[in-house]
Amino acid sequence: MSGLHVELAGLSARHPAAQAGARAAIDNLSLVIQPGEHVAVIGPSGAGKTTLLQLLGAALAPELGEVRFDNRSVWDLSTRALQALRGKIFYAPQTPPLPPRQRVVISLSAAKLPALSLWQSLKNLIHPQYVEEVSDALTQFDLQEKLWDRVDRLSGGERQRVGLARALLAPAGLWLIDEPLSALDPVRARQAIATLLRGATARGVTLVTTLHQVSVATNEFPRVLGLRDGKLLFDLPGKEVTQEHLAELYAQFEFELASAAHTHVLAEMPAAKAEVRVGCA
After folding, report:
1. What's the CATH number for 1-19+32-88+176-281?
2. Where are the chain's structural domains?
3. Residue 276's pLDDT band (boundaries 50, 70, 90)?
4. Of 264, 263, 259, 234, whose CA–CA distance to 248 is shortest?
5. How far apart are CA 203 and CA 140, in angstroms?
6. What angle do CA 178, 253, 263 make, to 5 degrees?
């Protein structure tokens, strides 16, 4: 599966749960994402990051503007064509929708459903058909021993990593990942980002992720979008994002920037030292 070409033109949208008269979560936003690009989206709370992912995932229709995938207008597609398009998109929310009583092997293999027939899906539910692929995906997140565990036996961080591992099995050309590090310690966060970037590169997948950890975005991603109040404040190569850019983006939300910076300091430390530091706090 090759990466999808994405274009947003003059897009405005409100969050589905927004009250009447509430300001737009995304306000007149335009951008183009090339196939295979890796893009990080940063910004303070309420900037519209999750809403942007919902628009990119064809899960939310805009009030104004147009969303185009591979030069096709998403909301002009027939119902069947729209369903087919959604099957090419993998979306990982902050809280993975994993059935608590389900085995991890079944939950992960469900990521392959868009490419399976009804019979294949039922067969896999009764007897897992993709054990080797699932095991390999879990191994890349250091979770191979959880293959046959039930989801409700996992910790919050393990559950988040299982949700991310599903991307490696999905028949998708676009990965949309919402705050993938929110429940992970610094060492696991480093591993998760490296695995996602490596997996997207190997598959030629277009990757868009929102991040609270600003320095991870600027150091690891070739392109960073700064979003505030639904508007695009900057669209720059990660290495060109300056402290001045960040000061404007996080004005009156400096505490979020400071918290993210502290987390990154721990992430850069050797694992043993980081553990000692945390233990003494």
Report:
1. 3.40.50.300
2. 1-19+32-88+176-281, 97-171
3. very low
4. 234
5. 15
6. 60
